[in-house]
Design brief:
Distance between the termini: 33 Å
Number of helices: 2
Radius of gyration: 18 Å
Shape: flat
Length: 64
């Protein structure tokens, strides 16, 4: 797929019990090949459900 050209602003998050807590938001210019690729990656991630608490407690060999 190649490389992506992304912007990435970083935001400081105030927290009483955590020093230097930050979040970074990655974005692509709308209509660019990087935007198309990022949307494709997001669609792939959306098709895989995150494990639930019950799934985490069940050994992999016992899952249907």
């Amino acid at each position: 797929m190649g490389s992506l050209e992304l912007g990435y602003p970083t935001f400081d998050l105030p927290a009483e019990d955590a020093a230097d807590l930050r979040t970074t938001l990655y974005t692509a210019e709308p209509g660019t090949p990087s935007d198309d690729a990022l949307r494709l990656l997001a669609s792939w991630a959306a098709t895989h459900a995150a494990p639930t608490v019950d799934d985490a407690a069940t050994p992999v060999t016992e899952r249907p």
